[in-house]
Design brief:
Layout: H1 3-7, E1 13-19, E2 21-22, E3 34-35, H2 41-53, E4 60-67, H3 75-88, E5 91-101, H4 108-116, E6 121-127, H5 131-136, H6 143-156, E7 160-167, H7 174-186, E8 191-196, H8 204-210, H9 218-234, E9 238-241, E10 244-246, H10 253-259, E11 263-267, E12 272-275, E13 278-282, H11 286-294, E14 300-305, H12 308-319, E15 326-327, H13 330-337, H14 339-346, E16 350-353, E17 356-359, H15 365-373, E18 380-381, E19 384-385
Parallel strand pairs: 1-4, 1-11, 2-3, 4-5, 5-6, 6-7, 7-8
Antiparallel strand pairs: 8-10, 9-10, 12-13, 13-14, 15-17, 16-17, 18-19
Helix pairs in contact: 2-3, 2-11, 4-6, 7-9, 13-14
Iron/sulfur cluster is lined by residues 22, 25-26, 29, 31, 33, 67-69, 102.
Length: 386
């Protein structure tokens, strides 16, 4: 995908639906997820449908159900939300309609029911194909179930299948990571995401590390990331974002909309959106979200205009992770003029040319983001402020 193709997503419209329910909370989880609250599912779905109906918008080019674990729900529940999105906004013909799923839930029967309700892309939370690593991550599925769930998706007619992998668990060795990558490729996925295991404060893994459990080794994680790039690229899956590889044409349209600064609505507890020049987010608690919608109040917890300097910084923060980078503009000029920007360019981390700025060393992306956040305010270019 070239820069012009990626930038076209700036005019895309998408919707994100957060499904917070999970069978159990994994020790490394930092998402807005809840276990043991399944009794609330019908009310939650009613609230999401009501939130959608409250503000008709324009036709959607991509829809993403994330979580949590959307596949934990009865497909009929998810189908009600798809139907509401189509009735209220319209879902464009050929739009990507995607859900995150756990391999243990994703049977052929469930896959077929989801296809009947309009889903055409699935992102399977495989995480690892090593049983010991899966156990250390607190996951409930077996390595074998990953291949079975991919097979179920294919048999049901899903046009795009993605696998999510995590590297850096204490039980993982270099060999087991390579075995995971090889096993993932054997299933012939269209798309693979690889994320570094992170120890965020307040999660069970963080408490375990504080108590003496081994923490992920950043050096080993960097090696695993490089190894993933080498193995996946050799198999024809090309990196199009720091953590995402895809066969040509199977890039995530929803993610490209977010990274390309297209507009997207966010529905459900803790959902985020970007519309009409603002970024907004909903209340994060399941009960608070349901209570707000049932009381006919907006579930929005915050809304921030994205204009001037904030808009330029925002453009870099969301877009620079893409392999194609961003078009040059006031903020890229200011970045390359700053001491840290010059240092990153001399070190080969930042690369500019053909009117674009890109990160040439993805493992050092955090240093670039810190430099972007540290840009002066206002950003002054050619006598005008941004
Ligand atoms: S399944 Fe995913 S969202 Fe749910 S607890 Fe585990 S990591 Fe978190």
């Amino acid at each position: 995908m070239n820069g012009a193709a990626a930038d076209r997503f700036a005019s895309s419209s998408a919707a994100y639906v957060h499904i917070p329910f999970c069978a159990a909370i994994c020790p490394y989880c930092d998402y807005a997820a809840a276990a043991g609250r399944d009794d609330l599912i019908p009310r939650y779905i009613d609230a999401v449908v009501a939130e959608i109906a409250a503000a008709p918008w324009r036709p959607l080019d991509a829809v993403c159900f994330g979580g949590g674990t959307p596949s934990l729900l009865d497909p009929a529940h998810l189908g009600r939300v798809v139907e509401a999105l189509d009735r209220v906004h319209r879902i464009s013909p050929g739009a990507e309609v995607s859900l995150e799923a756990n391999p243990e839930d994703f049977t052929l029967d469930q896959a077929e029911k989801l296809r009947e309700r309009g889903f055409n892309r699935v992102s399977l939370g495989a995480q690892s194909l090593d049983a010991q690593v899966l156990e250390s991550l607190g996951r409930r599925h077996s390595p074998e179930s990953v291949a079975e769930s991919v097979e179920a998706a294919r048999s049901a007619g899903f046009g795009s299948v993605s696998l999510d992998l995590v590297y850096g668990a204490s039980a993982e060795s270099e060999e087991s990571w390579e075995t995971t990558l090889a096993g993932a490729l054997e299933t012939d996925p269209d798309h693979v995401s690889c994320y570094a295991l992170a120890v965020e404060s307040g999660i069970a893994l963080s408490r375990a590390v504080d108590g003496g459990a081994p923490a992920p080794d950043p050096g080993a994680q960097a090696d695993r990331h490089e190894r993933a790039d080498s193995i996946l690229s050799s198999a024809g899956l090309l990196r199009y974002e720091i953590c995402n590889w895809s066969k040509p044409g199977h890039e995530s349209a929803y993610n490209l909309t977010v990274w390309g600064r297209g507009e997207y609505e966010g529905y459900g507890a803790s959902a985020h959106g970007h519309r009409d020049g603002s970024r907004f987010h909903n209340v994060s608690g399941l009960d608070a979200y349901i209570a707000a919608v049932e009381a006919r109040k907006s579930p929005r917890a915050g809304c921030e205009p994205v204009a001037g300097r904030r808009s330029e910084v925002d453009r870099l923060l969301v877009g620079l992770g893409r392999s194609v980078g961003v078009e040059e503009g006031p903020a890229t000029a200011a970045l390359l003029r700053s001491a840290e920007g010059r240092r990153l360019r001399e070190a080969g981390v930042l690369e500019s040319g053909s009117g674009r700025l890109r990160i040439a060393k993805p493992l050092l992306a955090d240093a670039v983001y810190r430099a972007v956040i540290g840009l002066p305010s206002p950003i002054v270019v050619g006598g005008t402020d941004a």
